[in-house]
Write a structure and sequence with these properties.
This protein has 227 residues and is an alpha/beta fold. It folds into two domains: 91 residues, Elongation Factor Tu (Ef-tu), domain 3; 121 residues, 3-Layer(aba) Sandwich (Rossmann fold). The protein is built from five helices and eleven strands, in the order βββββαββαβαβαβαβ. A six-stranded antiparallel beta sheet has the order 4-3-6-1-2-5, with helices on one face. A five-stranded parallel beta sheet has the order 9-8-7-10-11, sandwiched between helices. Helix 3 links the parallel strand 8 and strand 9. Keywords: 2Fe-2S, Iron, Iron-sulfur, Metal-binding.
Amino acid sequence: MGTLTSVHDETATARTLVLDVPDWPGHVAGQHVDVRLTAPDGYRAQRSYSLAAPANGDRLELTVQHVDDGEVSDYLTKTYAVGDPVEVRGPVGGWFVWRPTQPEPVLLVAGGSGVVPLMAMIRARAAAGSRAPFRLIYSARSKSELIFGDELRTRARDDRGLDVSYVFTREPERKRITLADVNSHGWPADLQPMCFVCGPTGFVETVADMLVALGHDPRRVKTERFG
C-alpha cells in the first residue's frame, strides 16, 4: 500500500505523483507498477504505470497522463490527494530496462507519455554518473504537451552526453515521425546501440520497423506499447 506525499503538474493533462511505499524492494529504470483502486462498493479497477525515476528508497514517482473516460487516470490526475492511500504492486518487467552498468550508446524514442520510462533511464544515468551516450527523439503534439519539458531542456544543455530532439505532430507540415528523423537524430546501426521505443502501439511499431530498416539488430530494439 502506498501513500501520496506530493504532486506536480507536468502539463495541462499530465501529473507526477510521488508515493511513499514502505518496504519497497527497489526497481530498475524502465519497469512499471500496477495501481489498483477499490471503490466503496467493492468495484476494482487496475492499470499499469511506468516508474518515472530511478530507485530512491521507499519513494516512487509515477507520471500519469489523463485519458478521457479512463477510470484510473481520471482519479489519479483529478481526485487523488496528498495523504490518500493506493494499492501498488511491483516492480513489474525485466525486458524493457536499462542499467547503469551498460556502456553502449542508447537511443530513446518516445511518443507522447511514452517518455515516462525513458525519463527514468535518463535520470538513472545521471544519478549513477554513467558516461553512456544517450539520444532521445521525443514526438509530441506540441511544445505545451511536452512532459518533463523544462527538465529535458536543462539536462540537454548541461550534459554533453545527452542529446534531445523533438518532433511536433501538430506543427505545420509535420504529421508523424519519419525515417529521416530517426536516421538524423539516432545512432548509426554499426555502433550497436540499445534502442528503447515507447508510446502508442502504432507509433512503436512504425519506429521499430524504421530502426530495423536502418540496419539495427532487432534484438537490440526494445519496445513498450500502451493504449
